Amino acid sequence: MSKKIVITGGAGFIGSHVVRRFVKQYSSYQIFNLDALTYAGNLENLKDIESAPNYTFIKGDITDEKFINELFEEQKFDSVIHLAAESHVDRSIVDPLAFAKTNILGTMVLLNAFKNLWQDNWSGKRFYHVSTDEVYGSLGNTGLFTESTSYDPNSPYSASKASSDHFVRAYGETYGMPYVISNCSNNYGPNHFPEKLIPLFINNIINNKALPVYGDGLFTRDWLYVKDHAVAIDLAFHKGNNSETYNIGGFNEWTNIDLVKLLCGLMDDKLQRPTGTSEKLITYVKDRPGHDLRYAIDASKINRELGWKPSVTFEEGLEKTINWFLENKDWLNNVTSGSYKEYYSNQYDKK
Ligand code: NAD
Ligand code: DAU
């Protein structure tokens, strides 16, 4: 079946993997990548598919109501896969309003444009909202987030994502909009912007810079290889039931410090440096305010109902990721020039 799908945030980390997957898997679909190209958006991520006949890039801001309404009216997209967001917790602590604007208002602008188009006949339409496990707040040392865990967000980022989830659900309840939400754990992999833990530390190890571990390093995250997330989104988009939430996770919990030590060992091998070289760069720094202790996803629903499970182990995924960064030094150099330096200095050097 032919479909006209707009994927928002397609020039970002996860979005670029989702766009590539849809463009390659579904040649009969028309895939539109709508992205404002903020600091996190990068068309280099999609060089290999930029001239595919079923792919179109549109530069635009999801908070620009007039532009979005006109675009939807003109293109009559039958589905939205919504990833565009401000996504970094540390930045949300510095500038929470920017997160409310893009993540809440931007989502509402898209929902409204979609509703205005199809509210008289929703048949065959779908709004797919990509969200995060951070909406559930923090776990103690035990337990897992399920789809029925109550929302309890702690950072401006997670509060803005929780709010956007609520609006998606509300459009489903109020206007009958067909929707699916997925809440995923920490992704890692190629094209990950080097402000997040894994790519930041890979870049710092390459450059012999300090590895700033927040607090005592005993915070726990569940890591998933980004291409496995893209597969899960594909499955839930096509086979998921309307009005459902699917939790997506890697069944792969690591404390930050154990993960950093694993990464240091792998990097020493790859860079042919003596064992222990990278670990010496570990520096404990002031903790992130409101830092969630532990996230862990119970992904049994998507496994049971849609047959999804991660395809690579963490060791395999980390090795692929490190190889990608070492083979794509130009990409890394391009994204760490310019405004990145100012961000880095404000976030790390001044503390
Ligand atoms: P990212 O920061 O790498 O990319 C975000 C993209 O959105 C960029 O291309 C940026 O240019 C675009 N964008 C930002 N503001 C925009 C606006 N106003 N209009 C149009 N485009 C805009 O983010 P990511 O890590 O790829 O995350 C993508 C989505 O997945 C987000 O919604 C995030 O909340 C969610 N998520 C991320 C993770 C993760 O580990 N990274 C995990 C679970 C869920
Ligand atoms: O859980 C899903 C979320 O994962 C996504 O919704 C977010 O978009 C994504 O950024 C990510 O959020 P985290 O805050 O968990 O990711 P981050 O890479 O920023 O941090 C991972 C852990 O590492 C966290 O406990 C904080 C810690 N950390 C991070 C940085 C950047 C450090 O110790 N030092 C650092 O310099």
Short summary:
By secondary structure, the protein is α/β, with parallel strands linked by helices.
Structural class: alpha/beta
Q: How many H/I helical runs?
A: 12
The CATH class of the domain at 4-191 and 223-253 and 294-314: Alpha Beta
Secondary-structure element order, as H and E?
A: EHEEHEHHEHEEHEEHEEHEHHHH
Rg (C-alpha, Å): 20 Å
Largest sheet strand order: 3-2-1-4-5-6-10
Compute the separation of the termini in Å: 54 Å
Name the CATH architecture of the domain at 4-191 and 223-253 and 294-314. Answer: 3-Layer(aba) Sandwich
Q: Using the alpha-carbon principal axes, give the shape.
A: globular
Task: Give the biggest sheet.
Answer: 7 strands, parallel
Q: Please state the average pLDDT score.
A: 97
Look at the structure and name the CATH superfamily of the domain at 4-191 and 223-253 and 294-314: NAD(P)-binding Rossmann-like Domain
Task: Please report the total strand number as a whole number.
Answer: 12
What does this entry look like structurally?
β5 (126-132), α5 and β6 form a beta-alpha-beta unit. The chain starts with a strand and ends with a helix. The protein contains twelve helices and twelve strands. Helix content is 43%, strand content 17%. The model has no long low-confidence stretch (mean pLDDT 97). The strands form three sheets. A seven-stranded parallel beta sheet has the order 3-2-1-4-5-6-10, sandwiched between helices. With 351 residues, the protein is α/β, with parallel strands linked by helices. The protein has a domain at 4-191 and 223-253 and 294-314: Rossmann fold (3-Layer(aba) Sandwich), CATH 3.40.50. The site of 2'deoxy-thymidine-5'-diphospho-alpha-D-glucose (DAU) has 19 residues, from α6 and β8. 2'deoxy-thymidine-5'-diphospho-alpha-D-glucose binds at residues 87-89, 132-134, 185-186, 196-197, 200, 212-214, 219, 221, 256, 288, 295.
